[in-house]
Amino acid sequence: MIEENRRVVIIGGGITGLSAAYYLQKESKEKNVNIEITLIEASNRLGGKIQTIRKNGFTIERGPDSFLARKQSAGRLVKEVGLEDQLIHNSTGQAYILLKGELHPMPEGAVMGIPTKLSPFVTTGLFSPIGKMRAAADLILPASKKTGDDQSLGSFFRRRLGDEVVDNLIEPLLSGIYAGDIDKLSLEATFPQFQQVEEKYRSLILGMKQSSPKQQSASSQKKKGMFQTLKGGLQTLVDALEEKLDEVAFLKAVKVEKIEKTNVEHYRLSLSNGSIIECDSVVVATPHHATANLIPSADYLSPLQKMKSTTVATVAMAFDESALKNDIDGTGFVVSRNNDYTITACTWTHKKWPHTTPEGKVILRCYVGRSGEEAIVDQSDEEIKKVVLDDLNKIMEITTDPEFTIITRWREAMPQYAVGHKKMLREVNERLAKDMPGIYIAGSSFEGVGLPDCINSGEAAVKAILTRWNKQTIEA
Ligand SMILES: Cc1cc2nc3c(=O)[nH]c(=O)nc-3n(C[C@H](O)[C@H](O)[C@H](O)COP(=O)(O)OP(=O)(O)OC[C@H]3O[C@@H](n4cnc5c(N)ncnc54)[C@H](O)[C@@H]3O)c2cc1C
C-alpha cells in the first residue's frame, strides 16, 4: 500500500510516454493513490512518430500505419480509451518481392521468409535451383552448438538456409521493420523465437511447419489480416489518450535537458524553459541518444550513445486510378538489395487500407533509405519525388505526376539492435538501478520497435515504479 504523495515525470510524449502516463494514472485512480504525473514533450504535439494527416479525403500516415494484431497490448489500449469500434484489420492480398527488376509473389507459407510449404518454394523464381537446394540443406543440418552468445540474424539464417534465401527474401522483409543491416542485427533482440525453433526442432523449416497455425486457421487468419489500425488514423489513439489523461500535467514544447540526483529518493530535472522540476521517479521515454544525453553523469549510458539508428523517409503519392497503366493485384512489395531501385518498399495503401482513400483514387506509400543507403533522404523533395516516380513507373507504368506527394524524413529514427543488444541493455539497466533508483528507460530503442512493444515498455516502467514504492513502504 502506497501512502505518501508521489511525483512522477515522464519524458517524451510518443506512444511509450503516453502509455506510461495512461497506466500510471489508471493505477492512481483505481487504487486511490495520490500520484502527481507530469509529461514533458519537446515538440508542440504529442504522438512522436505517430503522425496522421488528412488531405483531400485521404488519411495518410507519415510514420507507423498499423500494428501487429497478435501483440495484444495495442488493441487492449485502444479498447481502454474507447476506440474499439474504430479498430480495423488490413485487407489481405498478394505481397511481392522485387528482385532484379521483377515482382515475384511472396511464396505461400513463407513465415518471415522461412518456407513451410514445399511447392510454392520449389516453383518460385526468387531463388536459383542451387539456392533452393542450399535452403533444403536446413532439413539435414545439425542444430548449432548452444553457446548462449548472441549472433546476427544474417549469420543465423545464412547458416541454416544459405545466402540466396537471406538476400532475396529474408533481408528485404526484415528491412521493412528495422531498415537495418541483417548481418549486424541481433537475433536475440529481434527474433529470438527462431533460435528457439532451431533448439527445439533442429531444422527451421520443419520447426516452423510444426509451430505455424494449421491450414484451416491460417486461411481464416489470412482473410482478416495480421495488422490493425484505426479508421481515423493512429493519431486518434494519441488524441484519445490525451483526452483520457485528465490528471496528467502536460508540458509541450519544453525539453528536459538534464536529470540529476539530489538525494537517494529524489531527482531534479532542468528544463529548456529554465525551470526545475523535482520528483521521485522518472520514465525516460525518449530515443536512446536523447536518453543518454539526459544523464551526463552516467558514463555507463555510453553504449546508448554508440547505438546506431537508421534514417528513412516515407513518400506518399496520391493519384487518380487512371494514372496506373499497369495496376497489379496485391497490397505491395519489398525491394531486395539486388536491384537498381532506390525505393525499399511500397504499399498500395488504397488496397491494403481501403478506408484511407476516396473512391477512384490511389495512394502509394513508399520508403526510401535503409542501412548503407541513407543519402537519398538528404536530397530535396523534388529529387526524392523524381526518383520514387521513376521507380514506380518501371513497375506500374505511371507517367502522370501525382495529385500530391507527402514526404516525411525520419532521421535516425529506426534504432538498430546490434549483436549483444540484450546484454548491453541488462548491464545499463543494472547500473542505472544502482546509481539512480527510480529512473526507468523505456521506448522503441530497447525492447522492441513495434507500437505494441512500446506500449508494453511504457506499462513495464509503471510496474517497476509501483514495485519499488511498495517495497519502500514495506521496508519503512
Ligand atoms: C517511418 C516509420 C514507420 C513505422 N511503422 C510502424 C508500423 O507500421 N507499425 C509499428 O508497430 N511500428 C512502426 N514504426 C515504429 C514505431 O512507430 C516507433 O517505434 C514508435 O512510434 C516509437 O515510439 P516512442 O514513444 O518510443 O518514441 P517516439 O515516438 O520517438 O517519441 C519520443 C518522444 O520524445 C520526445 N523527446 C525527445 N527528447 C526529449 C527531451 N529531451 N525532452 C522531452 N521530450 C523529448 C520526442 O519529441 C518524441 O515525441 C515505424 C517507425 C517509423 C519511423
From TrEMBL:
Cofactor requirement: FAD
Pathway in which this enzyme or protein is active: Porphyrin-containing compound metabolism; protoheme biosynthesis
Catalytic reactions on record: coproporphyrinogen III + 3 O2 = coproporphyrin III + 3 H2O2
Record-linked Pfam families: Amino_oxidase
Coiled coil: none
GO molecular function: oxygen-dependent protoporphyrinogen oxidase activity
UniProt keywords, alphabetically: Cytoplasm, FAD, Flavoprotein, Heme biosynthesis, Oxidoreductase
Protein name per its UniProtKB record: Coproporphyrinogen III oxidase
Annotated gene: hemY
